[in-house]
Write a structure and sequence with these properties.
The strands form eight sheets. The protein has a four-stranded antiparallel sheet with strand order 3-2-1-32, with no helix packed on it. A four-stranded antiparallel sheet has the order 4-5-6-7, with no helix packed on it. A four-stranded antiparallel sheet has the order 8-9-10-11, with no helix packed on it. Strand 16 and strand 17 form a beta hairpin. It is mainly β. The chain has no helices and 32 strands.
């Protein structure tokens, strides 16, 4: 029961309206830990693990619906997706998909999930309303590496590494257009307008540029050995490419489609993340214990920050103040203060943390 005490600020015969139980939002960090078959949930306000949610075998990637209420986890070891209720923090469905599910992408309206398979030539399409597979789209080859849905939701693009092509799937008809690229495409990145798609061709040392209107390759840009990670500056003017085999990062000018700088970083650079203000690029050196921090204005490496073993994926918190990095070869996530570029702490989440994502839900 709510009791109101009269005081100097409450006059006699005054009508008061009191609201109870107003809805609030909750933000949590979800971390897939591959060796423990679970997803850790971290409260970013305290950086403590709230709970561990058991999922399938060898989970690898996670995607959050736009409303923040569901998380989909691909379990590469048992051919399933786990559906997590991000409010109640439990698994509501286990969906059987194809062999070795890997990357997954959710349509902008939150209605469907596209799932690529590392060991089969098809894409599973999951309806998020019923959490059932509604289509398996044949794309050829024996396995794909990445999938990205256009901002208008009209096409899903697949990096079909085994077939050395990008498959453009019409999300209404599921018709497939094949776009040939140099060998082994692995990662996909749209420009802010969606007019172009950059493709890291891991086995060739090129980045392909696809015009999304015509579904044609307009340029193949030579970068370094084994290009893998891609990130674009918020203004869309530069794309950063990690070259895993060369220990370098290539900077591509998106107007000229040429490399404007090549920077030496750490061992086996994997992901690159650019901060929301566009000022800094953080490169996860997966073969070391470091992040290389690049000043995007001067194209220089400002420092190599020591984190955990095998840093892999990273994500910035919704406030834009901290960076969270999964250290895939130990049991921790490193928390980095973006203002001071220092490590605040290491959060114990479980063995082999891999992918991670924030969810904000009612």
């Amino acid at each position: 029961m709510l009791v109101l005490m009269a005081g100097p600020s409450v006059s006699a015969n005054q009508s008061l309206t009191v609201s109870e139980g107003q809805s609030t939002t909750t933000t949590n960090l979800f971390v897939v830990t591959s060796a423990s078959d679970s997803t850790a949930v971290v409260d970013p306000s305290t950086n403590e693990v709230i709970t561990q949610i058991p999922v399938g075998r060898s989970p690898i990637r996670i995607a959050i619906t736009p409303d923040g209420q569901k998380a989909y986890v691909s379990n590469g070891g048992d051919f399933t997706l786990s559906v997590i209720d991000t409010v109640n923090l439990d698994v509501t469905h286990t969906i059987t998909v194809g062999r070795s599910p890997q990357e997954l992408a959710i349509t902008p309206d939150g209605g469907r999930v596209f799932v690529v398979h590392k060991a089969s030539g098809d894409i599973s399409v999951v309806d998020t309303g019923t959490d059932t597979v509604i289509n398996d789209v044949a794309i050829g080859g024996t396995g794909a590496r990445d999938v990205a849905v256009s901002s208008d939701g009209l096409f899903a693009y697949v990096a079909n590494s085994s077939a050395s092509m990008v498959n453009a799937i019409d999300t209404s008809t599921y018709a497939v257009t094949n776009i040939v690229t140099p060998a082994g495409p692995r990662r996909l990145l749209f420009t802010p307008t969606g007019a172009r798609l950059f493709v890291a061709d891991y086995d060739s040392g090129f980045v392909s540029v696809i015009d999304t209107a015509t579904k044609t390759v307009i340029s193949n840009i030579a970068v370094g050995i084994k290009p893998r990670g891609l990130a674009i500056t918020p203004n869309g003017k530069e794309v950063y490419v990690t070259n895993e085999g060369a220990r370098t990062v290539s900077v591509i000018n998106t107007s000229t489609l040429r490399v404007s700088a090549t920077l030496r970083v750490g061992n086996q650079p994997y992901q690159v993340l650019i901060t929301p203000d566009g000022a800094w690029a953080y490169v996860s050196n997966s073969g070391a214990k470091t992040l290389s921090i690049i000043n995007t204005r001067t194209h220089t490496v400002a420092q190599n920050l020591v984190v955990g073993q095998g840093p892999f994926f990273s994500v910035v918190n919704p406030a834009g103040t901290e960076l969270y990095v999964s250290n895939s070869q130990d049991t921790t996530v490193s928390v980095i203060d973006l203002a001071t570029q220092t490590v605040l702490q290491a959060v114990e989440v479980g063995p082999k943390p891999f992918d991670l994502s924030f969810a904000t839900s009612p």
